[in-house]
Protein backbone atom coordinates (compact mmCIF):
# COMPACT_ATOMS: atom_id res chain seq x y z
CA UNK A 1 0.00 0.00 0.00
CA UNK A 2 1.33 3.45 -0.89
CA UNK A 3 1.22 5.87 1.95
CA UNK A 4 2.50 6.50 5.44
CA UNK A 5 1.59 6.38 9.07
CA UNK A 6 2.27 9.05 11.68
CA UNK A 7 3.85 8.37 15.06
CA UNK A 8 3.44 10.70 18.05
CA UNK A 9 5.30 10.29 21.33
CA UNK A 10 4.17 12.48 24.23
CA UNK A 11 7.02 13.10 26.67
CA UNK A 12 7.32 15.31 29.72
CA UNK A 13 9.25 18.07 27.94
CA UNK A 14 8.61 17.47 24.24
CA UNK A 15 6.22 15.82 21.82
CA UNK A 16 7.96 13.93 19.01
CA UNK A 17 6.43 13.28 15.61
CA UNK A 18 7.61 11.18 12.69
CA UNK A 19 6.21 9.79 9.45
CA UNK A 20 6.76 6.15 8.60
CA UNK A 21 6.77 4.66 5.12
CA UNK A 22 6.19 1.00 5.87
CA UNK A 23 7.00 -0.19 2.35
CA UNK A 24 10.53 1.16 2.40
CA UNK A 25 13.31 -1.20 3.39
CA UNK A 26 13.92 -1.65 7.08
CA UNK A 27 16.98 0.58 7.33
CA UNK A 28 15.20 3.35 5.43
CA UNK A 29 12.34 3.29 7.86
CA UNK A 30 14.05 4.70 10.86
CA UNK A 31 16.38 7.18 9.21
CA UNK A 32 13.63 9.75 8.66
CA UNK A 33 13.25 13.05 10.41
CA UNK A 34 11.82 13.30 13.92
CA UNK A 35 10.26 16.64 14.74
CA UNK A 36 10.21 17.85 18.30
CA UNK A 37 7.68 20.23 19.81
CA UNK A 38 8.55 21.62 23.22
CA UNK A 39 5.67 21.38 25.64
CA UNK A 40 4.80 21.61 29.28
CA UNK A 41 2.47 18.77 30.09
CA UNK A 42 1.62 20.55 33.36
CA UNK A 43 -0.31 23.15 31.32
CA UNK A 44 -3.06 20.61 30.81
CA UNK A 45 -4.81 18.57 28.16
CA UNK A 46 -5.93 21.33 25.76
CA UNK A 47 -2.47 22.70 24.81
CA UNK A 48 -1.08 19.15 24.54
CA UNK A 49 -3.88 18.22 22.13
CA UNK A 50 -3.27 21.39 20.10
CA UNK A 51 0.42 20.51 19.73
CA UNK A 52 -0.41 16.94 18.69
CA UNK A 53 -2.77 18.24 16.00
CA UNK A 54 -0.23 20.79 14.77
CA UNK A 55 2.50 18.13 14.71
CA UNK A 56 0.35 15.77 12.62
CA UNK A 57 -0.52 18.65 10.24
CA UNK A 58 3.07 19.78 9.81
CA UNK A 59 4.74 16.41 9.46
CA UNK A 60 2.22 15.14 6.91
CA UNK A 61 2.26 18.28 4.76
CA UNK A 62 3.60 17.55 1.27
CA UNK A 63 4.25 13.85 1.87
CA UNK A 64 3.57 11.52 -1.07
CA UNK A 65 0.65 9.10 -0.79
CA UNK A 66 -2.07 9.22 1.83
CA UNK A 67 -2.03 9.01 5.60
CA UNK A 68 -3.08 5.48 6.53
CA UNK A 69 -3.11 5.60 10.31
CA UNK A 70 -1.85 7.45 13.40
CA UNK A 71 -0.17 5.92 16.44
CA UNK A 72 0.20 7.77 19.75
CA UNK A 73 2.29 6.88 22.78
CA UNK A 74 1.13 8.68 25.91
CA UNK A 75 2.04 8.67 29.59
CA UNK A 76 -0.53 7.02 31.81
CA UNK A 77 -2.73 3.99 31.39
CA UNK A 78 -4.66 3.30 28.23
CA UNK A 79 -7.52 0.82 27.93
CA UNK A 80 -8.06 -1.58 25.04
CA UNK A 81 -10.14 1.02 23.13
CA UNK A 82 -7.47 3.72 23.31
CA UNK A 83 -9.08 5.78 26.07
CA UNK A 84 -6.90 7.25 28.78
CA UNK A 85 -7.69 5.84 32.19
CA UNK A 86 -6.51 6.22 35.76
CA UNK A 87 -5.07 9.19 37.57
CA UNK A 88 -1.37 8.35 37.37
CA UNK A 89 -0.75 10.90 34.61
CA UNK A 90 1.13 14.17 34.86
CA UNK A 91 -1.16 16.00 32.41
CA UNK A 92 -4.13 17.70 34.13
CA UNK A 93 -7.38 16.80 32.34
CA UNK A 94 -5.81 13.88 30.46
CA UNK A 95 -7.58 11.19 32.50
CA UNK A 96 -10.72 9.98 30.69
CA UNK A 97 -9.90 11.77 27.43
CA UNK A 98 -11.15 9.77 24.41
CA UNK A 99 -7.96 10.63 22.51
CA UNK A 100 -8.20 8.07 19.72
CA UNK A 101 -11.79 9.01 18.88
CA UNK A 102 -10.94 12.74 18.89
CA UNK A 103 -8.05 12.24 16.45
CA UNK A 104 -10.06 9.82 14.27
CA UNK A 105 -12.81 12.42 13.88
CA UNK A 106 -10.31 15.06 12.83
CA UNK A 107 -8.22 12.97 10.34
CA UNK A 108 -10.60 10.16 9.36
CA UNK A 109 -7.97 7.44 9.75
CA UNK A 110 -7.61 4.69 12.37
CA UNK A 111 -5.76 5.88 15.48
CA UNK A 112 -4.02 3.54 17.91
CA UNK A 113 -3.20 4.94 21.33
CA UNK A 114 -1.05 3.05 23.82
CA UNK A 115 1.02 3.72 26.90
CA UNK A 116 4.39 5.27 25.94
CA UNK A 117 6.40 2.43 27.50
CA UNK A 118 4.42 -0.05 25.40
CA UNK A 119 5.12 1.93 22.21
CA UNK A 120 8.80 2.04 23.17
CA UNK A 121 8.77 -1.75 23.57
CA UNK A 122 7.12 -2.07 20.16
CA UNK A 123 9.78 0.16 18.58
CA UNK A 124 12.58 -1.92 20.12
CA UNK A 125 10.87 -5.11 18.99
CA UNK A 126 10.24 -3.85 15.45
CA UNK A 127 13.60 -2.18 14.77
CA UNK A 128 16.04 -3.51 17.32
CA UNK A 129 18.51 -6.27 16.57
CA UNK A 130 17.37 -9.92 16.59
CA UNK A 131 13.63 -9.22 16.71
CA UNK A 132 10.80 -7.99 14.47
CA UNK A 133 9.53 -11.45 13.50
CA UNK A 134 5.90 -12.36 14.10
CA UNK A 135 6.60 -15.08 16.64
CA UNK A 136 9.15 -13.13 18.62
CA UNK A 137 8.67 -11.66 22.05
CA UNK A 138 10.44 -8.86 23.85
CA UNK A 139 10.33 -7.18 27.23
CA UNK A 140 11.51 -3.58 27.38
CA UNK A 141 12.39 -1.90 30.67
CA UNK A 142 13.17 1.79 30.86
CA UNK A 143 15.14 3.06 33.86
CA UNK A 144 14.55 6.80 34.13
CA UNK A 145 13.15 8.96 36.91
CA UNK A 146 10.58 6.14 37.16
CA UNK A 147 10.62 2.66 35.66
CA UNK A 148 8.46 1.92 32.63
CA UNK A 149 7.94 -1.40 30.98
CA UNK A 150 6.30 -2.98 27.99
CA UNK A 151 5.82 -6.50 26.72
CA UNK A 152 5.51 -7.49 23.06
CA UNK A 153 4.26 -11.04 22.74
CA UNK A 154 4.06 -12.77 19.35
CA UNK A 155 4.36 -9.38 17.68
CA UNK A 156 1.60 -7.71 19.68
CA UNK A 157 1.68 -5.25 22.56
CA UNK A 158 0.41 -6.98 25.68
CA UNK A 159 -2.24 -4.58 27.04
CA UNK A 160 -3.93 -6.75 29.64
CA UNK A 161 -7.57 -6.79 30.75
CA UNK A 162 -7.38 -3.34 32.32
CA UNK A 163 -4.41 -1.80 30.50
CA UNK A 164 -2.05 -2.67 33.33
CA UNK A 165 0.21 -5.23 31.64
CA UNK A 166 3.90 -4.40 31.64
CA UNK A 167 3.86 -2.19 34.76
CA UNK A 168 7.23 -3.56 35.76
CA UNK A 169 8.13 -0.50 37.84
CA UNK A 170 5.42 -1.40 40.33
CA UNK A 171 6.38 -5.00 40.89
CA UNK A 172 6.90 -5.21 44.67
CA UNK A 173 10.48 -6.30 45.33
CA UNK A 174 10.52 -5.51 49.07
CA UNK A 175 7.32 -6.31 50.95
CA UNK A 176 6.58 -3.38 53.28
CA UNK A 177 9.43 -1.41 51.74
CA UNK A 178 9.66 2.20 50.57
CA UNK A 179 6.23 3.79 49.98
CA UNK A 180 5.39 4.43 46.32
CA UNK A 181 3.10 7.04 44.69
CA UNK A 182 0.97 4.16 43.34
CA UNK A 183 -0.22 3.21 46.82
CA UNK A 184 1.94 0.10 47.23
CA UNK A 185 5.17 -0.16 49.20
CA UNK A 186 8.46 -1.62 48.01
CA UNK A 187 7.95 -1.13 44.25
CA UNK A 188 10.94 -1.73 41.99
CA UNK A 189 11.07 1.93 40.91
CA UNK A 190 11.55 3.02 44.53
CA UNK A 191 14.96 1.25 44.40
CA UNK A 192 16.31 1.02 40.86
CA UNK A 193 15.14 4.15 39.02
CA UNK A 194 17.36 7.25 39.03
CA UNK A 195 15.14 8.58 41.83
CA UNK A 196 15.38 5.32 43.78
CA UNK A 197 19.17 5.21 43.47
CA UNK A 198 19.36 8.75 44.87
CA UNK A 199 17.12 7.76 47.80
CA UNK A 200 19.33 4.73 48.46
CA UNK A 201 22.38 7.00 48.55
CA UNK A 202 20.88 9.19 51.28
CA UNK A 203 19.64 6.21 53.32
CA UNK A 204 22.82 4.15 53.08
CA UNK A 205 25.41 6.96 53.42
CA UNK A 206 25.51 6.98 57.28
CA UNK A 207 26.71 3.33 57.27
CA UNK A 208 29.72 4.04 55.07
CA UNK A 209 32.89 6.04 55.25
CA UNK A 210 33.78 6.81 51.63
CA UNK A 211 34.31 9.92 49.48
CA UNK A 212 30.66 9.78 48.36
CA UNK A 213 29.29 9.34 51.89
CA UNK A 214 31.40 12.28 53.09
CA UNK A 215 30.14 14.46 50.19
CA UNK A 216 26.53 13.52 51.03
CA UNK A 217 27.11 14.28 54.75
CA UNK A 218 28.64 17.66 53.83
CA UNK A 219 25.79 18.44 51.45
CA UNK A 220 28.11 18.81 48.46
CA UNK A 221 26.62 15.83 46.57
CA UNK A 222 22.90 15.93 45.60
CA UNK A 223 23.04 12.97 45.49
CA UNK A 224 21.95 11.89 42.02
CA UNK A 225 22.20 8.53 40.24
CA UNK A 226 24.79 10.10 37.95
CA UNK A 227 26.97 11.06 40.95
CA UNK A 228 26.60 7.57 42.39
CA UNK A 229 27.82 5.94 39.17
CA UNK A 230 30.64 8.44 38.77
CA UNK A 231 31.76 7.55 42.30
CA UNK A 232 31.43 3.85 41.48
CA UNK A 233 33.85 4.15 38.58
CA UNK A 234 36.32 5.69 41.06
CA UNK A 235 35.95 2.66 43.36
CA UNK A 236 33.69 4.19 46.02
CA UNK A 237 32.41 1.58 48.53
CA UNK A 238 29.05 3.30 49.19
CA UNK A 239 28.40 3.58 45.43
CA UNK A 240 29.24 -0.13 45.03
CA UNK A 241 26.72 -1.06 47.73
CA UNK A 242 24.00 1.11 46.15
CA UNK A 243 24.68 -0.47 42.76
CA UNK A 244 24.44 -4.00 44.21
CA UNK A 245 21.17 -3.11 45.92
CA UNK A 246 19.66 -1.66 42.73
CA UNK A 247 20.90 -4.61 40.63
CA UNK A 248 19.51 -7.19 43.05
CA UNK A 249 16.05 -5.59 42.97
CA UNK A 250 16.11 -5.35 39.18
CA UNK A 251 17.13 -8.99 38.87
CA UNK A 252 14.28 -10.01 41.15
CA UNK A 253 11.62 -8.28 39.02
CA UNK A 254 13.23 -9.41 35.77
CA UNK A 255 13.37 -12.97 37.08
CA UNK A 256 9.59 -12.96 37.60
CA UNK A 257 9.11 -11.69 34.06
CA UNK A 258 11.55 -14.15 32.54
CA UNK A 259 9.78 -17.10 34.18
CA UNK A 260 6.27 -16.00 33.19
CA UNK A 261 6.83 -14.52 29.71
CA UNK A 262 10.00 -16.35 28.60
CA UNK A 263 10.81 -13.60 26.07
CA UNK A 264 13.36 -13.94 23.30
CA UNK A 265 15.08 -10.81 24.54
CA UNK A 266 14.90 -8.33 27.42
CA UNK A 267 16.16 -4.85 26.58
CA UNK A 268 17.00 -2.22 29.17
CA UNK A 269 17.03 1.47 28.30
CA UNK A 270 16.55 4.90 29.86
CA UNK A 271 18.74 7.58 31.38
CA UNK A 272 20.27 5.33 34.05
CA UNK A 273 21.98 3.34 31.25
CA UNK A 274 24.24 6.35 30.67
CA UNK A 275 26.31 4.74 33.42
CA UNK A 276 27.22 2.09 30.82
CA UNK A 277 27.25 -1.70 30.57
CA UNK A 278 27.74 -1.97 34.33
CA UNK A 279 23.93 -1.78 34.73
CA UNK A 280 23.40 -4.90 32.59
CA UNK A 281 26.37 -6.63 34.24
CA UNK A 282 24.89 -5.92 37.68
CA UNK A 283 21.55 -7.48 36.71
CA UNK A 284 23.29 -10.55 35.24
CA UNK A 285 25.22 -11.06 38.45
CA UNK A 286 22.04 -11.49 40.50
CA UNK A 287 19.82 -13.29 37.96
CA UNK A 288 20.91 -16.82 39.01
CA UNK A 289 19.12 -16.21 42.33
CA UNK A 290 15.80 -15.63 40.57
CA UNK A 291 15.75 -17.57 37.28
CA UNK A 292 15.63 -21.32 36.64
CA UNK A 293 19.04 -22.56 35.51
CA UNK A 294 17.52 -23.98 32.30
CA UNK A 295 16.00 -20.56 31.42
CA UNK A 296 19.06 -18.58 32.41
CA UNK A 297 21.18 -19.89 29.58
CA UNK A 298 18.79 -18.71 26.87
CA UNK A 299 17.97 -15.40 28.56
CA UNK A 300 19.17 -12.66 26.25
CA UNK A 301 19.41 -9.38 28.15
CA UNK A 302 20.98 -6.33 26.57
CA UNK A 303 20.89 -2.57 26.20
CA UNK A 304 18.06 -1.00 24.20
CA UNK A 305 19.30 0.07 20.78
CA UNK A 306 17.04 2.93 19.65
CA UNK A 307 17.45 5.36 22.54
CA UNK A 308 14.82 8.07 22.90
CA UNK A 309 13.55 7.51 19.33
CA UNK A 310 12.06 4.11 20.20
CA UNK A 311 8.72 5.55 21.35
CA UNK A 312 7.92 7.62 18.27
CA UNK A 313 9.05 4.91 15.83
CA UNK A 314 7.15 2.30 17.80
CA UNK A 315 3.96 4.40 17.65
CA UNK A 316 4.31 4.95 13.90
CA UNK A 317 5.15 1.31 13.12
CA UNK A 318 2.35 0.05 15.38
CA UNK A 319 -0.20 2.17 13.49
CA UNK A 320 1.21 0.94 10.17
CA UNK A 321 1.29 -2.74 11.12
CA UNK A 322 -2.28 -2.70 12.40
CA UNK A 323 -3.76 -0.92 9.41
CA UNK A 324 -1.66 -1.09 6.24
ZN1 LIG B 1 4.47 1.62 42.87
What are the secondary-structure elements, in order, as H or E?
EEHEHEEEHEHEEEHHHHHEHHEH
Rg over alpha carbons = 20 Å
The backbone outline, from C-alpha atoms, is globular
- Helices, by number, come to 12
Distance between the termini: 7 Å
* Total strands: 12
Order the strands across the largest sheet as they lie in space. Answer: 3-2-1-4-7
Strand portion: 15-25%
List the uncertain runs.
Answer: none
Q: Characteristics of this structure?
A:
5-stranded mixed beta sheet; alpha/beta; 12 strands; 39% helix; 324 residues; 12 helices; binds zinc ion
Write structural notes for this entry.
- 39% of the residues lie in helices and 19% in strands.
- It has twelve helices and twelve strands.
- It has a five-stranded mixed sheet, with helices on both faces.
- Zinc ion is lined by residues 170, 180, 182, 184, 187.
Give the SSE layout.
Elements: E1 3-10, E2 14-20, H1 26-29, E3 34-38, H2 45-60, E4 66-74, E5 77-78, E6 84-85, H3 99-107, E7 111-115, H4 116-127, E8 138-143, E9 147-153, E10 156-157, H5 189-192, H6 194-204, H7 211-218, H8 225-233, H9 237-261, E11 265-269, H10 278-286, H11 293-296, E12 301-303, H12 310-323
Parallel strand pairs: 1-4, 4-7, 8-11, 11-12
Antiparallel strand pairs: 1-2, 2-3, 5-6, 8-9, 9-10
Bound molecules: zinc ion.
Overview in brief:
Helices cover 39% and strands 19% of the residues.
Amino acid sequence: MKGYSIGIDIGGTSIKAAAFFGNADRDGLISGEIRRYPTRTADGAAPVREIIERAIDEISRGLPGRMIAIGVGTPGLVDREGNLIGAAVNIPGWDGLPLSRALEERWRVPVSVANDANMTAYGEWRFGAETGSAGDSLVCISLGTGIGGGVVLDGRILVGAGGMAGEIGHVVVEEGGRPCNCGLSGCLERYSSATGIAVSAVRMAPDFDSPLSREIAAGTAGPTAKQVYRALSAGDSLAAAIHRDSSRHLAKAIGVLAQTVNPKVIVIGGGVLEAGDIIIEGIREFLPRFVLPMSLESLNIRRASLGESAGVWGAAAHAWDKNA
